[in-house]
Design brief:
binds zinc ion; 13 strands; six-stranded mixed sheet; Metallo-beta-lactamase, Chain A; seven-stranded mixed sheet
Length: 242
């Protein structure tokens, strides 16, 4: 299984996942122009992407769903977000897949088990993916205060690490961030410590790669995060980001 992070963070999220002959996207949070450009850079034809999974209805995760759907890509996203109507206008009906937590959806060679995350009241799904021909598994969770699922035997882990608490506290002390804003971030995103505690609970014996996603430029240090996770897990850690 090969992961190509096209972009990660509050400006836009999109990750290519390749397994065997199959290619999917996680998130469509780049603008149409930027997504086209990134796919071109990696020599990926949009016609070869069969599915795009969108975790929740924030712009940095769904900006180019209309373009993808018009080019034949099936788009899966939380059914509650579809009910609000926006996505019914953006995505062709025959290419829209409504995802329910804990109900497995099958698309081509992929099995998708969505699970609930905690994003300050907005319905947000994480995904456990199985690519049947290669039997490879991927766990994906972003934009959440914590993760209740404890995956076992996963080949690739993709997890948000948005902030390190010490940097948030520094910003508040310096007066560049309000205390309310700090609380809001802590209610809706993962800290390095929360991720380390989560990883401690997982069986990582089969895990080959760990990706840290959605880092905040201001409230995190990529190198410190990489080192901390590598030390905790002994696995190769990649920071997704521009
Ligand atoms: Zn986001
Ligand atoms: Zn979000």
């Amino acid at each position: 299984m090969k992961i190509i992070p096209l972009s990660s963070g509050s400006h836009g999220n999109s990750y290519v996942v390749k397994a065997g002959e199959d290619t999917i996207l996680l998130e469509a949070g780049l603008s149409q122009g930027d997504l086209k450009h990134s796919l071109w850079d990696y020599d990926i034809n949009v016609k070869d992407i069969e599915l795009c999974l969108v975790s929740h209805s924030h712009q940095d995760h769904f900006k180019s769903v209309e373009w993808l759907s018009n080019r034949g890509v099936k788009v899966g996203l939380p059914s509650s977000a579809v009910e609000k109507g926006l996505f019914k206008r953006l995505i062709r009906k025959d290419r829209l897949i409504e995802l329910e937590p804990y109900k497995t959806a099958k698309q081509g060679n992929w099995y998708v088990k969505p699970f609930e995350l905690e994003h300050d009241g907005i319905e947000n799904l994480g995904f456990l993916l199985l690519h049947a021909p290669t039997d490879e598994r991927l766990f994906y969770a972003t934009d959440t205060a914590f993760i209740k699922e404890v995956p076992q035997n996963v080949d690739v882990m993709m997890i948000e690490i948005n902030f390190q608490k010490k940097y948030l506290e520094e910003s508040v002390k310096e007066g560049t961030m309000s205390r309310e804003n700090m609380r809001r971030i802590m209610r809706s995103h993962m800290s390095l410590q929360t991720t380390l505690d989560f990883l401690k609970a997982c069986d990582l014996s089969k895990t080959k790669q760990i990706y840290a996603l959605h880092l905040s430029g201001r409230n995190s240090n990529a190198e410190e995060i990489r080192e901390a996770i590598q030390e905790e897990t002994g696995k190769p850690v990649y920071i997704a980001g521009r």
